[in-house]
Amino acid sequence: MRNLLIRAAFAAVAFSAVAAQAAAPAMTGETAKGPALVDAQGMTLYTFDKDMGGKSMCNGPCAANWPALTAASGSTASGDWTTVTRDDGTMQWAYKGKPLYTFAKDAKPGDTTGDGFLNGAWHIAKP
Q1: Non-local CB neighbours of 75 within 8 Å, separated by 6+ positions
Q2: What is the DSSP string of 77-122?
Q3: CA 121 to CA 111: how far, in whole Å?
Q4: DSSP H or E run through 55
Q5: How far is CA 15 from CA 2, 18, 22, 59, in A?
Q6: What range does the record give for the signal peptide (predicted)?
Q7: What is the pLDDT of residues 97-125, one digit of tens each?
Q8: Handedness of CA 33, 38, 44, 48 (dihedral sign)
Q9: Which uninterrupted H or E stretch holds 126?
């Protein structure tokens, strides 16, 4: 009986670890500027200095150049990962309270052309 309980507990811990890993909307990737958070396609993610209090300030024309890392309806936040509601009502992923974006001018995975854009207001999202 004890072995069965130990195996069940181990399986629950292993499942929890896999579920937590699967819930992360981004991963760490390598860029010429070092490790960065990247989306599922390997594109570099960025943060914006003008975002305040967990709210995205990049809307309208800004959002065309800096697409938000959107969260599907019902996405579950966990640990450092949260979601914010954008002005248009869509949900966006945030890491440590900072909404995340890609940059339209990054052409391939690992590109970091958005880093320092707009007088240094845009930054690579670091893990």
Answers
A1: 25, 83, 91, 93
A2: -BTTEEEEE-TTS-EEEEETTEE-B--TT--STT--TTTTHHHHTE
A3: 17
A4: none
A5: 20, 5, 10, 38
A6: 1-19
A7: 999 999 999 999 999 999 999 999 999 99
A8: negative
A9: none
